[in-house]
Specification:
single chain; alpha/beta; Rossmann fold; Helicase, Ruva Protein, domain 3; 4 domains; 5-stranded parallel sheet; 18 helices; 20 strands; 44% helix; elongated
Length: 471
Amino acid sequence: MADSAWPILLVDDDPAVLDGLASLLERRGYEVHRASSAAEARAEIERSRPPVGLIDLHLQDGDGIELVQAMREIEPDSAAIIITGEGSVEAAVKAMQGGAFDFVEKPVSPDRLCPVLERAVQFTRFRRQAADMRSELSQLGQTPLIGNSPAMEEVRKRIAQIVRTRSTTTLILGESGTGKELVARAVHHGSVRRKARFVAVNCAALSESLLEAELFGYEKGAFTGAAQGGKMGLFEAANKGTIFLDEIGEMPLELQAKLLRVLEEKRIKRVGGIDDISIDVRVVASTNRDLQREVEAGTFRLDLFYRLNVMTIRMPALRERLEDVPVLANYFLAEFAREFQKTLRGFSDGALTALQSYSYPGNVRELRNIIEHAAIVAPGPIVDRSHLMIESDASRPRRGRIQLELPDVQLATAERELIFYVLEQTGGNRRRTAELLGINRSTLYAKLKQYELTGQTEGRKHVRSRARSSS
């Protein structure tokens, strides 16, 4: 069934065809705008800016392709379907090259027309949603949070509650690639702090000493290699604004204690300094770890957890909101079409089915990569299943129960063996390994170095323990 009262421009200079098609479309719930000539069609395009058109190729006073181009000049994300003569392959090709979304042959069959029309409506609806999101947040300089699923509506609801406060600490939970930094930016840009800086730091990307210097700054001579005049830290740089502590679960315990003091006293002390510096900043933190389990394991401070966990936002995995995949995919496709200067108007039914059937271990980040690849390889204008770099879920390493045989019960031993096991299962693919482990690549690289696993991706000579998959 059609979207409720979705506007469609219907153009044909044969009264019988015009009446017949109009009756069919109206019965299916569309809002039909009729035009019996090219002149009438142009006037209707300027007046109502229709998102979808069904246009006869040959009109007595004009050419259908010119009308397609007129629609796209006024409404760039419109979709026009050309009606061609029976067996007119050359005309169909010409229409597609001229910017048509698709074509149908005369005599028009409802069985052929309706699926094509529904795809065109879906395409324009997704493009309009994406455009509205871009417009809504373009002044804020951020990528919109895309999706209308209940899970994303809950995320927006939580953001709306948080931005009404000035300094409430926020903890964002979710797997890698779900868009946690976008949520942090939305909190900043929606609050009274929007005119000050938003500063992001990845706690997993730096060593403890470097992270401390980055966060709190340092004085002249604080350590070997310190800048002559010292350096302002990120907390100072974010004063009056927001600091985003990404992957807070990776922060060393000693540094956690110093962060706790900052949250409690609203003051920082530079490395090598003696004076306290007052700060006014909202702290937003994120993690893909279960911090309560980290507290139980002794790797995360309970008091810091309570300080951070004032307001929590859980970002859903993409597999939990597959209904958002089409609008996300079309948003990314439009983005890459502009970047690559290609005409890409949407996805075939097979491509959309494949996109909505995949589980996305890498979440939205993986979907974006898939669409970027498709935008490069697709000749246009429609992305087909063959253009999608999607492997079947069955071909990926199993996510069931994993049994590890360990020489001891130390947490570090278990972590080392699990990382090596997943590396073996992925053939040494570090990006995929990080996705399956639920950590970002910088964290994985740090752990590979920590456990001396660098370069050991295809077996090892001295295996202290063996991991195997069990059902």
